[in-house]
Amino acid sequence: MPLQDLTPQLRTRLNKMERAVGWFVFLASALLLFGFGYYIYHTAERKGWFLTKAQFATYVQSSAGLKVGDPVVMMGFPVGDITRIHAMEPGNPHNVRVEFEVRDNYFRYIWTGGSYVKVNSGFLGTSQLEVTRGTNGYALCVTQPIFYKTISELKELVAAQPGEWQLSQFVFDAQSNIIFKPYQPYDGLVQSNLDLLASLNLESNSVFAYNNKARGKAIVAVWREPLHRYDFYDHKNSPPMELPALESVPVAERLDKLVGQIEIALPNILSLTNKISTVLDNAANATSNLNSTLIAAQPLVTNANALVINVDTNLNLLTLQVGATLENLAGITSNLNVQVQSNSNMLAGISKAVIDADDLVQGLKRHWLLRSAFKTKATNAPPAKATRK
After folding, report:
1. Phi and psi at residue 189, in whole multiples of 5°?
2. Where are the domains of the chain?
3. What are the pLDDT digits (tens) for 168-213?
4. Sign of the dihedral defined by the CA atoms of residues 170, 171, 172, 174, in that order
């Protein structure tokens, strides 16, 4: 039905419905665009698209387990991503170059002393780059612009901005002694420092310095060890800064070595197991024989026990009898002692009786009838020599 054929009431209601649908489509599109924009912003923030990044490179033996987009960690935190992996040209002493970026402010932990790249090998052939935190030295890259100024220019800047200017290089005297180090003086240059610098007769009478209050949005200077100072850096055109790498032995290779060692040691282990089994069998047989011996020796132990009991009983009886005998002997001795003490002439009589008995025996020896009864047997002793009278 053509629109002009509708009644005015229907035409009014249709226009209102069209406006409502138009507003709904507009609001839905706006919400969709807002959600999509928030997702992009959140992803960019999570990936550090709005942060300052420093470009680094390192060399590894193999790219196994590494791929572009893998995270780079520091102290357990994801701080960047791998941006490029490529093999070096023939004749180059290095095998593979890995380039990666580190976000702000983590690249400020990378110093000239103590910072290097660890290649951590995991299971299933995976690997991960870990950048260690620096412990000494100087920040490898900075966002403070450096300036090459004459002493007179630097005096004017120090006078206008006191406490804001510091050196970004080593300063030596004619004998190569260190007079100033980078970042010194820590509380900012003063006129006395500049007078000392002027007295050293430096090349072009100029030094490299920076304003510690200024901080840019990109890497503008890097440390150059051969120059003993910070040098200018273009984050768009300058090559990435290089860090040494420390590679660990892959887990798969370590497992292969472990399996090889096990295979070498396995025959000896089996031989040792067989020997242990033999020893255990012999021990079991010895235990069985010992058990049989103990069973056979049980009657002997019982008899020995009875014998000990009988010996103990007889010994007790013998002890009692010996005790009684000793008591009787003591009584006899006591009686004899009493008799001797009561009869003082008894000993003289006994002594006279013994002497008379001896005289009797000697007389019997000389009697012709009994002389043969007292003959002594001949011996091999030499005859006694006759003594001269």
Report:
1. -70, 145
2. 3-47
3. 999 999 899 999 999 988 999 999 999 999 999 888 899 999 999 9
4. positive
